[in-house]
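Please, structure for the following, as tokens.
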Amino acid sequence: MKALSEVHLCIIGTGLMGASLALALRGKVRHLHGIDPDPSAALHFDSFSADLNSLYNADVIVLAAPLRVILRLLPQVGALAPANALITDLGSVKAPIIAAMDQLPPRVQAIGGHPMCGKELSGAAAADPTLYHGCTYVLCAAERTSQAAISFMETLVRAIGAQPLQLAPEAHDQAVAHISHLPYLLSVALMLSAAEVDDERLWQLASSGFRDTSRLASSDVTMMGDVVTSNRAALLGALTRYAAHLARLQALLASEDDSALRAALEAARQARQAWLRYKGR
């Protein structure tokens, strides 16, 4: 493959993630081309179009659209991509995407990608060139992914300030069900529960704790709806595990077993402290 600095890179889908990637890659690739019906991110690219056919000379193609759109576009992109092009994505569930990548023509390369970063905001207006800094960027190889393609993507990931991590798609989907998709549903449930309380003073009292724990409920519904339904089995397992812990806390609270309740709270606090140490915070 060409060196990163020599590639013509095309990003399909120029919302938050796609536009942020374009900003992060400015000056690091030969040419940045964007494709999206919405031209609001056009200023972040060297060229821009609403026409999928405009990817005809791309060396690297990044699908940065909602998951179901990625699955719908992959066969079209595979048919239009030039020989030896590398196709990748930013989708949050990897097993269905890798399965679709395995069906692409043998003249193209493909590798799944998922940067573990984002915002509750959406759209090009929220784009941030530092969005990927310090994040783990998962790479999932397809059946025919070459070592050259993997090495190229690792170079690209490091160029935007992220850290590459290779995972099997199934392992990725199980992990993100617990630490990404479940937190979204918990935030949704918290917001729905609070909204049922018939007291306007609730919103006056709500402060940083409620703001932080409900933040993900502001996420784009189209994107997150695709994510949670596409990772249904793993997410149901994560919900079952979480519900068991919640039921235990409820039982401890109801039984007035304050000692056992405090032990559970302390175990959670220590687990989070261990995670923060692992992340170097």
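The mean pLDDT is 96. The first strand starts at residue 8 and ends at 12.
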